[in-house]
Amino acid sequence: MQRPRFGIVTAVVSTLVVFGVMAKYLQGQIPTVNANRLGNSPNRFLAQAASQSIDWQPFDERVFSKALNRGVPILLVTGSAESRFGRDADKGLLNSPDVMTLLRHSFVCARVDVDDTPRWASAFLPMSRVRSSYLVNFGIYVLSGKGRLVATYLPGTPLANVDAKSLVAFLARAELDAARDGPEVDTQSEELNALTQGQGPGLPDFGAHLASLIQFDNPKGGFPFQGRQDLLPFAWRYMLLEGRFDAFQTSIDPVLLSPAVNLLDGGFFRDARSPDWSQVDFDESAQLDAEMMWTLALGAAATGDPFYRKLAERAFDRLAGDFGDTEWVAASQVGDEKDQDRSARYSFSPRALRDVLPDSARRDWAQQHLRLRVSENPLMVPSLVSKDVLLRDSKTLNECLDQFRAARTQPRTFGATGLLEVNGLVASRLIACARLWNDTTRLQKALDLALRFDTYRASDDVSRTPVAGERKPGSLADYLAYSDSCLETFLATGRLDRLREGAKVLRRAIFLFGTSNPGVFVLDSAPGRVPLDANPPEILDRYRESTCSYMIRLSLAYGTLMGKGGADLKRVAYDTGSRFSGIANEFGPFDSGYFCASARLSRAEGAFCVGPRADQLARDLYLRVPTRLVAIVGGEVRPDLAKKAPGIYFARGEDVVGPLTVEAAARIMPLAFPFDAPTPR
Q1: What residue ranges in 217-351 does DSSP mark as E strands?
Q2: Residue among 231, 335, 248 at smallest CA distance from 289
Q3: What is the DSSP string of 398-428?
């Protein structure tokens, strides 16, 4: 073959060099299509949308001005980094060229991280969202420029049916509706009115709620809904409070023998895309782990099954140890899904299993006892084949898990760090568990966390984060979490200063977040204009109990402890409980926290210990009845009982019985209190 002439080669090379220089020079002049203002955001949820050619805006009043000036609607995306569906949507749905083109031309687009501003997690459709796919920590909404909710994406749609084509069709319809300032039926306003204006009969129908939980007759346990499963610790806890230990075990045991349990690190994966838990997502919530830990600790106390305590202890050590990469507990651990929906850390393919466990006998044991066969465990996540693996073969189990952990050394990714809402709740549950187990070492770890929370305080107000110069006003959940940690610290140590500080912050929360309707509390005390009618009370449990049930429980506890000095707080508890009692049974297992709190309203009672052995009496009784309020008399705590003879006094309202022994007090106020059972006398 004849070679090209030297002159031709030289000309071609020179031309390419010129083009290269020109491209280099012009590169800075050409706008980058796949870039937006989120590229340098320190917020993980915002930054994960940085590659989209969408002009994402912060969600503030300027968004509404822009929308009105352009005559276009607003697309609002809410979520957090620990939402698997949110990550998938940002990679697929919102990265579709057709979707991005439509959004650029016809919408003003904004994003909100619900870890940063929690009110947006449940701001829209606060009642009907329970019947939709918005239970995932992600939402897509269309608003008019005036702030009216026009449309929501995904209501009732199985996630598997979601694609870019359906989103484009939705956006086109929503654009037309927005031109008319919304649909004819304003569901958002109707639901807000039902939540804020309604008044229930007093106490809810406890029997109906229990029946709604037991009717989930699923051999794989839990509460399957629209083809998926979510861990619902309050639903299981309510079964325990009702004394239905059989239903509790039937429902929770299959879940604990599934990939939903994080055997490697301790804790729990919060949801699954299948009713049998085989397709778990790998996100973890610190608050959910804490609530599951406490539910299992109560389950062990109620049933005597040590399996529950073992799992609870593993969750405790995770939360008190390495749930985060700073001195504070992180809100979440972000899932690390990869090919075939498997986890980079928690899944072990057949090849990886051979590498990690080269000994064939050990590998055979793991395949048999940890379900590591693809045919029965497609994600290849270690899960227990029976309770005996943890209870009777723990040495081999721990050796296998140590080998698994040693093979997976890549750093884990955590969500927002230092949120008071998260740290306060986690500390409260850690303290309660350590008290129940009479474990002084674990109790000290929990108290070390709780006693650092004054970093968040400024007078009777609290901030959302402890970082100086970056403090953001606390939400209702932050105030309640602080009060909760003070309450548990007092109950564990008898420190009256903690009780006083907790009561001050609780009363401040009632003032800041209360409304003209008794018993109605909003999440944000200064919502501004973004948008109208989107600051409802919270009745549905997310990864913690709702702020509605939180308010009932704490106001009742502080009010009961303080006797006549806490009458105002008890009134708040009753107002909040009765406000929602008429609608509470509309939400199935998703508002069980409200029923757990309201069950205490039906029996506003406590045990108060007097005398030189009061501390020991309180400790011994609490070990018997950890669901009940047990405290030492002194200071503001029931001063009317201070001069009584030594012993335990059972108090319900103005009625007092005592002195009692530990055994007698436990008979009067047992661990479980079925709603239709009379109180023993």
Answers
A1: 229-230, 271-272, 284-285, 332-333
A2: 231
A3: HHHHHHHHHH--SPP-B--B--HHHHHHHHH
- DSSP bridge pairs for 77: 111, 140
* CB contact at 8 A, 78 and 143: no
Tens digits of residue pLDDT in 395-452: 999 999 999 999 998 889 999 999 999 999 999 999 999 999 999 999 999 999 999 9
Answer for the pair 130, 94: CB distance below 8 angstroms, yes or no: no
d(CA 50, CA 228): 29
Q: pLDDT tens for residues 625-653?
A: 999 999 999 999 999 999 999 999 999 88
Question: Which residue type does 365 have?
Answer: W
Tell me how far apart the terminal alpha carbons of the chain are, to the nearest angstrom: 108
Structure tokens that stand for 271 in this block:
């949801």
Closest by CA to 530, choosing from 47, 48, 67, is 67
Q: Where are the beta strands (DSSP E) in 447-495?
A: 457-458, 461-462
Any idea what DSSP says for residue 340? G
Q: Provide the CB-side half-sphere exposure for 74 (13 A, CA).
A: 29
Alpha-carbon span 271 to 279, nearest angstrom = 9
Number of H helices, E strands in the chain: 25, 15
Strands 138-143 and 74-79, sheet pairing: antiparallel
What are the two backbone dihedrals, phi and then psi, of residue 479, each rounded to the nearest 5 degrees?
Answer: -60, -45
Rounded Cα gap, residues 160 and 178, in angstroms? 27
d(CA 108, CA 60): 12
